[in-house]
Amino acid sequence: MSTKHLLALLSSHIEGDEEQFLSIALQVAAQEARQGRPEDADKLKRLVQKARDQQRAGRPAGGQTPIPLARPRGELQGLVESVYPKVTLASMVLSEEVQSRLTRVVRQQQERATLRDHGQAPTTHMLLVGPPGTGKTMTASALAGELRLPLFTVRLEALFSRFFGETAGKLRLLFDQIAQVRGVYLLDEFDAIGARRGDPNDVGEIRRVLNSVLAFMEEPNTTDSLVLAATNHVEALDEALARRFDEVIEYGLPDRRAGRAILERRLGKFKLASRSWEAIESALEGLSQGELVRAADAVVKDAILEGATKVSLDALEAALQNRQTLKGKFRRQTGR
To answer: Which end of the chain is more exposed for a tag (fewer CB within 10 A), N or C?
Structure first.
């Protein structure tokens, strides 16, 4: 252990900041792993997990222990944004397969010490693919909420620099953060940095970034952070990169049953009469979760301002048709 780590441990102990104390212990574990002492690193991680399990078991009934604030500092402030989501997987409408796979990831993370005792590691790298508005970004929030971890959203546009080598340096900062501070990290529009090598539009800097990401994917994740990469264009990803993810989860547009469930949940107390749903089922076809949510929000706002207790069938149908029209115009403009 370095003097810097020892001083930080003592300081956090004196100030009574137990989470900072445990975070520094994980940094020491990461250092041990890098120096070729994996057994010592695993012992430290198991002790930290045991301490956190005891914290969780001792929280007040009906309440939750507060999550310590973890804010990006220094150069990371421009690269990463952090929030503490309260949503969970139960608040999402997902297919049975996606729900089952995400629940399995949560369990692996919660019981990661048990997995390590048997020589296994929990899922830590996930690729989420599918059309816009199908729940990829919300999944990151829900996983963070389930695990009571901060959600760090990486601003990929801030990674790129016109100065040679600076982008790789920023990536190194990000990778160090992931290794040292446990959280859920979302890299949205991942195809921006994971594009195929040899692409006609490829440039040297993009290749260097991709090679850095490939190397990072091979590094041990010492804090068991969850790294989620999301993309609308999986076909653009380099195959070598796609193979390195523990899980690849595909999201699709909701069918009529799922679309109705999304609307009912979003309408809340402004629910529509059951017999009215059949009249608007065809208007749900082809709309994403995000588009359905926005249509529901539009009519709920009007109902609130008008002092109504329910939304009208005509208003909801008009909002859905508006979304269908906008989607059709976009398709014609893009040729998709």
So the answer is: C
Domains of the chain and any CATH numbers? 3-57 (no CATH), 74-250 (3.40.50.300), 256-334 (1.10.8)
Tell me how far apart the alpha carbons of residues 312 and 321 are, in angstroms, rounded to a whole number: 14
Q: What is the mean pLDDT of each run of 10 residues along the chain (336 residues)?
A: 72 68 80 82 83 60 40 66 88 89 94 88 91 90 93 78 64 82 88 58 61 75 84 77 85 88 89 81 86 91 90 89 79 54
Distances (CA, A) of 315 to 57, 301, 305, 326: 48, 11, 14, 17
Q: Is 135 left (phi over 0), alpha (psi -120 to 50) or beta?
A: left
Label residues 242-273 b or e (16+ Cβ within 10 Å = b).
eeebbeebebebbeeebbbebbeebbeebebe
- Euclidean distance between CA atoms 23 and 224, whole angstroms: 12
Closest CA to 291 of 334, 331, 321: 321
* pTM for the whole structure: 0.69
Report the distance separating Cα 19 and Cα 52, nearest Å: 9
Buried b (16+ CB within 10 A) or exposed e, 197-212: eeeeeeeebbeebbeb
Phi/psi of residue 111, nearest 5 degrees: -115, 35
Q: Hey, CA dihedral for 128, 80, 24, 213, is it positive or negative?
A: positive
DSSP category for residue 76: G
